[in-house]
Specification:
This protein is an all-alpha fold and about 80 residues long. Helix content is about 50%, strand content about 0%.
Length: about 80
């Protein structure tokens, strides 16, 4: 079930992306909205150039990686 849903979401997302480009919208470097991101979305696609800064903040605030024990996207 999860694979089927994931494939359908990717298919629809790709279609929307192509239409946006065809209509002249500059979405080629648009970040993925985190709340809509699939489980295997690269962090770089969501946070872009902010990723190194966010990793540094996480290391300072959560040096023991407690939040790494949770689900979700890992910095």
């Amino acid at each position: 079930m999860d694979d089927t849903v994931g494939r359908l979401i990717r298919k629809h997302t790709t279609s929307i992306y192509r239409v946006a480009l065809a209509e002249g919208q500059d979405v080629s470097n648009a970040a993925v909205y985190v709340n809509n991101a699939l489980f295997d979305t690269p962090l770089q696609d969501m946070y872009g150039a902010n990723l190194p800064r966010l990793r540094k903040i996480r290391a300072e605030i959560d040096a023991e990686d407690v939040m790494g024990l949770t689900g979700g996207f890992k910095f």
